[in-house]
Amino acid sequence: MTAYLASIIGLDSKGLIRPGIDADLVVFDPETISNEGHCLVKIFCRRRAF
Fold first, then answer.
1. CA atoms of 48 and 37, how far apart (whole Å)
2. Which of 2, 3, 12, 48 is the least buried, fewest Cβ under 10 Å from its Cβ?
3. Minimal CA–CA distance to 13: which of 3, 28, 25?
């Protein structure tokens, strides 16, 4: 799916998991990963912090 979209805008070396192709891929073990996040930076917009 992403390779097709990338090719439409001329990014032929994106969107596939294949040798020689640029890819961002994350592999994790669901038994050891945590959903506890930590905010390092707060962004303020209209007196609200995000």
1. 19
2. 48
3. 3
